[in-house]
Design goal:
Elements (H helix, E strand, L loop, with lengths): L5 H10 L1 H21 L6 H33 L1
Helix pairs in contact: 1-2, 2-3
């Protein structure tokens, strides 16, 4: 995620439970999505799963972004 500085990510992974959980969720969805995208064709169930995984990744990324923004604001104060 281009908005996430490595040192901030490391700190949040240690100190922020929700952030850590969201990062794990995003990574798991990304891994499964990669598995599906390597298949030559998808069943209807897999196509639905692909859409849901993309939504999961987006929701996680949006929440991660808000946590990072909040942490950055607190660091500046």
């Amino acid at each position: 995620m281009d908005f996430l500085r490595p040192e901030l990510q490391e700190r949040l992974m240690k100190e922020h439970f929700e952030f850590r959980k969201l990062m794990e969720e995003h990574k798991a969805a990304d891994t499964r999505l990669g598995d599906l995208q390597r298949k030559p064709s998808l069943s209807a169930k897999e196509s639905l799963e692909e859409v849901e995984l993309k939504k999961t990744k987006l929701r996680a990324k949006e929440r991660i972004y808000h946590i990072v923004q909040e942490a950055s604001r607190h660091a500046e104060q």
